Description:
Blueprint: E1 25-27, E2 30-32, E3 35-38, E4 41-53, E5 58-67, H1 74-79, E6 84-90, H2 96-111, H3 121-130, E7 139-144, E8 149-153, E9 156-161, H4 164-175, H5 182-188
Antiparallel strand pairs: 1-2, 3-4, 4-5, 5-6, 6-7, 7-8, 8-9
Amino acid sequence: xxxxxxxxxxxxFLPGCFAAGAKAAxxxxxxxxxxxxxxxxxxxxxxxxxxxxxVFNFDVYVAALYLPRRDQDANRILSSPGPKVILxxxxxxxxxxxxxxxxxxxxxxxxxxxxxxxxxxxxxEKLVAAAPxxxxxxTSAYIFTPQGVRVLxxxxxxxxxxxRDLSFQLLNGFIGSxxxxxxxxxxxxxxxxx
Length: 194
């Protein structure tokens, strides 16, 4: 549930993703930094990938995962209390309706069998309602903390949710065992394509 904006079931792994020694990268003309400041810490780039709609074969956004130190183990990352950040930079725009639809498709993909607590529903609905339309060049940041998740759109807060499970489910939607895009999940973990 609550996976971040998910554009389709499929995605394409970006060969330029990094494992050990992650560096700032330019992908599809988008440059993402090698560090991100959150919760008083400087987080390092763990991995980077591009989300591609295979139906239309076009890139939608570049995503990066930032951690206190690099790690390729999704379970360890998901259970760690330290801050984590997913940063998206959009290559293509989408209407608010399309953004909302993708949140809901992500929820169905991750929680379709009632796997996510009903107690997350109110915060999830607030997040969906607050999510704006996006234009090419826009950014979204999801800052995961021990208390929950803070969501930014173009560096402006759109939601601060003191909901640890919602936080877990959002990050799980990118790197967990059932992401809508396994290839992007591997890229964010700095793992090679399968």
